C-alpha cells in the first residue's frame, strides 16, 4: 500500500478514536466525575456528554459488591467504577460479635439502605465510601448494643434501628450520603443463653397459666356467691310478697265479714223495729252460744265454767225467743 494512502488512513483512525474517546455516554440514574489534568472539572449528567480526550478523564471510585457463595455464605468483592449509581443501594453486612451491657456476646448482622446525593463529596471527602460506611455501621452498632441488656436488645429492634440510622445519617452527611433505613436481620445469642431464655419463657408461660387459672377460679367463686345472694334476695322478696298478699287477703276477708255483720245487724234492726227488742243483745247471745258450742265439743269436757257476766246474757234468751216469735 502506498504511503500516500497509509497516512490519511492513520489520520482518519486517530480522528475516529479521538471522537470515540471524547464521547461519554452516561446512563439514567448515574453520573460521572470528570477531572481535567488531575483537578475536578465537572459532573456529567445522564445522556451524551463530550470531553476532551487525554485531558479530561473520568475519576474512578472504589465500590463494594456482595456476591452469594456456596452453603449460604456471601463474599465481598471490591472494584473500581467510573459511573456512580445515584439509586438507593443495599448493603448486607456480615455477622459481627457485639457485647451487651450485661456482658453477653451476641452475633448481629444488619442491612443498610443508603443513597448518594452529592457525588462530588462522595468522591473527594472519603477515600473508600463503602468500606467507611461498613466500619461506621459496625462501630456504631457496638456502641448502641453496649448500652443495652440482652433482653432489651431482643425486644427493641425498632429502637436500635432508629438510633443507628440517625447516627449514620449525621456522620455520612459530610460524605454526600443519605442513610434512609437500617434493619437488624438476626440477633443470635450463645447457645446456653438461648437455652436459659427458653426455660425462662416456659416458666413464665406456666406462671401466666397458673395466674389465669386462679383468676378463673376466683371469678367463678364470685359469680357463684353472687348467684346465691341473688337467689336469697329473690326468695326473701317472694316471701315478702306472699306475706303482703296474705295480709291483704286477711284484711279483705275481715272487711267482707264486717260488711256481712253490718248488713246482718241492719236486717235485724229492721226486723225488730217497733217491737222494743234490742238487736245487740241478740248478736251477743248468738256469739255466746257459738262459743259455748266450741267449748263443749270435746269428748272429755264434763264440766263447763261460765263467767258471771254470762248470766246476764243468758237471761236475754227469753227475749230472743220472743224476737223469733215476732219474726
List keywords for this structure.
Tetrahydropterin Synthase, Chain A; 9 helices; alpha+beta; four-stranded antiparallel beta sheet; 4 domains; 55% helix; 327 residues
Overview of the molecule:
By secondary structure, this protein is of the alpha+beta class. It has 4 domains: 59 residues, no CATH class; 129 residues, Band 7 domain (Tetrahydropterin Synthase, Chain A, 2-Layer Sandwich); 62 residues; 54 residues, no CATH class. The chain has 9 helices and 12 strands. The strands form 4 sheets. Strands 2, 3, 5 and 8 form a 4-stranded antiparallel β-sheet that branches.
Q: Look at the structure and name the CATH superfamily of the largest domain.
A: Band 7 domain
Give, in order, the helices and strands: HEEEEEEEEEEEHHHHEHHHH
Structural class: alpha+beta
Output the number of helix runs.
Answer: 9
Q: End-to-end span in angstroms?
A: 181 Å
CA gyration radius, whole angstroms: 58 Å
Low-confidence stretches: none
* CATH class term of the largest domain: Alpha Beta
Strand content: 15-25%
How many domains? The number is: 4
Q: Roughly how much helix do the residues carry, as a percent range? A: 40-55%
CATH architecture descriptor of the largest domain: 2-Layer Sandwich
Largest sheet features: 4 strands, antiparallel
Q: How is the CATH topology of the largest domain named?
A: Tetrahydropterin Synthase, Chain A
Which word captures the global form?
rod-shaped
Mean pLDDT across residues: 80
Number of strands: 12
Amino acid at each position: 500500500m502506498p504511503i500516500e494512502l497509509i497516512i490519511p488512513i492513520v489520520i482518519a483512525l486517530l480522528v475516529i478514536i479521538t471522537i470515540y474517546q471524547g464521547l461519554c455516554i452516561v446512563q439514567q440514574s448515574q453520573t460521572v466525575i470528570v477531572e481535567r489534568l488531575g483537578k475536578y472539572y465537572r459532573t456529567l449528567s445522564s445522556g451524551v456528554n463530550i470531553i476532551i480526550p487525554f485531558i479530561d478523564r473520568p475519576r474512578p471510585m472504589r465500590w463494594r459488591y456482595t456476591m452469594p457463595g456456596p452453603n449460604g455464605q456471601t463474599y465481598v468483592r471490591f472494584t473500581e467504577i467510573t459511573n456512580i449509581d445515584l439509586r438507593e443501594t443495599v448493603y448486607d453486612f456480615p455477622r459481627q460479635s457485639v457485647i451487651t451491657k450485661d456482658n453477653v456476646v451476641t452475633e448481629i448482622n444488619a442491612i443498610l439502605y443508603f443513597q448518594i446525593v452529592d457525588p462530588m463529596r462522595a468522591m473527594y471527602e472519603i477515600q473508600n465510601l463503602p468500606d467507611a460506611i461498613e466500619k461506621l455501621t459496625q462501630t456504631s452498632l457496638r456502641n448502641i448494643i453496649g448500652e443495652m441488656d440482652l433482653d432489651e436488645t431482643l425486644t427493641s429492634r425498632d429502637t436500635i434501628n432508629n438510633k443507628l440510622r440517625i447516627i449514620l445519617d449525621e456522620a455520612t452527611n459530610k460524605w454526600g450520603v443519605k442513610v434512609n433505613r437500617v434493619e437488624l436481620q438476626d440477633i443470635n445469642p450463645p447457645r446456653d443463653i438461648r437455652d436459659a431464655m427458653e426455660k425462662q419463657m416456659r416458666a413464665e408461660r406456666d406462671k401466666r397459666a397458673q395466674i389465669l387459672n386462679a383468676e378463673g377460679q376466683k371469678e367463678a367463686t364470685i359469680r357463684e356467691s353472687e348467684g346465691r345472694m341473688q337467689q336469697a334476695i329473690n326468695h326473701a322478696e317472694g316471701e315478702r310478697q306472699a306475706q303482703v298478699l296474705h295480709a291483704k287477703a286477711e284484711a279483705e276477708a275481715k272487711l267482707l265479714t264486717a260488711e256481712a255483720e253490718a248488713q246482718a245487724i241492719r236486717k235485724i234492726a229492721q226486723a225488730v223495729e217497733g217491737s222494743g227488742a234490742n238487736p245487740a243483745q241478740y248478736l251477743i247471745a248468738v256469739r255466746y252460744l257459738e262459743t259455748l258450742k266450741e267449748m263443749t265439743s270435746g269428748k272429755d269436757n264434763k264440766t263447763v265454767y261460765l263467767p258471771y257476766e254470762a248470766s246476764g246474757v243468758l237471761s236475754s234468751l227469753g227475749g230472743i225467743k220472743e224476737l223469733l216469735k215476732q219474726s
